[in-house]
Design brief:
heterodimer; A: mainly alpha; 10 helices; 0% strand; B: mainly alpha
Chain lengths: 260, 238
């Protein structure tokens, strides 16, 4: 072990340092780069803890360097790893474990937690809240935007804080706690909500525009918009680029609207 | 045509802020198209355009995600640029916000998604340089300098995307003569292009929802909504 107990200053961290680490973890991706990915962000986040745990000099430099190696995970779920790193660093500073443990801890968790975070936040919660709130725009107007921010961030911020807390106090045992939250099942339900909301909104827009336009051709135009939606779904699933489908639909609607 | 430089500056400022929020800091979804575009509309005095553009683009980009090293199209740049242009075009025409303006703005500026992705890739090179500086500083024992490099990664996002958004707001003013010169039939056609594009965006959203039975859920919801609206219309209810 390179860090002897003799070099330790104070291996317990006050609340304000823990808070600083959490707030700095919000900048995890500020300098995301293809080689180290979030390495610089992680080192930046845990630096206040390292500064407190190790005296200036080789011990602190070594501690910083072990967090400048490759690191990449989901930015929210990273809070658990940041907390866990602080937990491990405290034990390393007390001489209770070797520095290899914190490196192994990061390497073991970043992949599985990235998959968990991507699946739940990026591919389930974000589309579901986005689709529901976009659907509510015709009813709520700008309040749908406020609802979007409240609904999403209620889950996001609470989970981020809780994961940091779990990492901080459970260290390696945080894996069991995260597994108990059962995010994949919740994600599947949210994805169904997103699909249903998108379908409902497509119908709402087509029919309500038809009604507002009036005239003999309006029902046909409304039905045409709905048919375009169905045709677009088929085209997109057959890998026709989204932009091509959008321009095609706009061109057709433009021609129909101009001549009907 | 007179250019509102205050609107151009505000558009640049908001475009820069949400570009930073998108990846470098927090990620509380201020950068999502629905939010970024509506706020942009509010800032430039045309919430209706921001909301309409934001809703359409939110659906169009619903399934995109920044997974690992893969870069999706930059939905935030499209949202801020398109809504800024729509708002300034509305302001310049003085005739109020219309679906024709929303359609024209989307059709002209949606390509910014690809442009933004290229810019994102370029900025990764800059961030890689910062990481190298941080490593060499840490090797030399200058830890404060090493840590500071992380925050230097933020500014290019702010300035670059802020400038592009400001340019879009400016372009909105220059589109006004074109909009005014369009024949009425084409304006009516453009107005119809909006619900058509929204239908397409919703279909793309359903496909991008990653749900196992997405067509079933989307189709059922569409059928229910259509039936309810037709019934309400027949009874003369709004």
């Amino acid at each position: 072990m390179s860090t002897s107990a003799a070099t330790v200053r104070d291996a317990s961290l006050p609340a304000h340092v823990l808070l600083r680490v959490f707030l700095r973890s919000l900048f995890l991706q500020a300098s995301w780069n293809p080689k180290g990915m979030q390495n610089l962000g992680l080192a930046y986040a845990v630096y206040p803890a390292l500064e407190r745990l190790y005296p200036a000099g080789p011990a602190r430099e070594e501690a910083v360097r072990r967090h400048l190696v490759f690191f990449n995970t989901h930015p929210y779920v990273a809070a658990a790893i940041v907390g866990g790193v602080v937990n491990h660093e405290q034990r390393i500073a007390r001489g209770e474990e070797s520095p290899d443990r914190v490196v192994a801890f990061k390497a073991a968790l970043m992949g599985p937690l990235a998959a968990l975070g991507d699946g739940f936040f990026w591919l389930s919660l974000k589309p579901a809240v986005g689709a529901v709130c976009a659907t509510l725009v015709p009813l709520l107007g700008v309040w749908a935007v406020a609802l979007f921010l409240v609904l999403y961030n209620l889950v996001h911020v609470l989970l981020r804080v809780r994961l940091y807390w779990l990492g901080l106090f459970l260290g390696d045992r945080l894996v069991e706690a995260v597994a108990r939250v059962n995010l994949p099942t919740k994600g599947a339900r949210l994805r169904a909500v997103a699909a249903a909301s998108a379908g409902g909104l497509a119908a709402w827009l087509a029919v309500s525009f038809g009604a507002a336009a009036g005239g003999e051709g309006a029902p046909f135009l409304a039905a045409g918009c709905l048919a375009l939606g169905i045709a677009s779904y088929v085209l997109v699933t057959r890998r026709v680029p989204n932009y091509v489908v959008l321009y095609l639909a706009a061109g057709l609607a433009c021609a129909a609207g101009a001549f009907l | 045509m007179s250019v509102g430089w205050t609107q151009v500056a505000l558009a640049g400022l908001w475009g820069g802020v949400v570009a930073v929020e998108r990846k470098a800091f927090l990620q509380a979804m201020l950068a999502r198209p629905l939010v970024a575009a509506t706020f942009m509309g509010g800032l430039l005095g045309d919430v209706a355009s921001g909301l309409a553009v934001g809703m359409l683009l939110e659906l169009f980009y619903l399934g995109t995600a920044n997974l690992g090293a893969a870069l999706p199209d930059n939905d935030t740049l499209v949202a801020t640029g398109t809504s800024a242009a729509a708002a300034t075009l509305t302001l310049a025409t003085g005739a109020g916000s219309t679906p024709a303006i929303w359609s024209l703005s989307v059709l002209v500026f949606i390509g910014l998604g690809r442009v933004g992705r290229r810019m994102d890739r370029l900025m990764e090179g800059y961030s890689a340089r910062l990481a190298r500086v941080a490593l060499s500083s840490a090797e030399k024992g200058n830890l404060q300098r090493a840590m500071r490099q992380n925050l230097w990664g933020i500014w290019p996002h702010f300035f670059l995307y802020g400038s592009v958004t400001a340019a879009c707001a400016l372009a909105g003013f220059f589109l006004e003569p074109l909009m005014v010169a369009l024949p009425n039939r084409l304006v009516r056609g453009l107005a119809w292009a909006y619900p058509a594009m929204a239908s397409v965006a919703a279909a793309i959203a359903a496909q991008g929802s990653h749900a196992k039975r997405a067509p079933l859920y989307a189709g059922l919801a569409a059928a229910v909504v259509t039936a309810v609206l037709v019934l309400l219309n027949r009874q003369g209810l709004p």
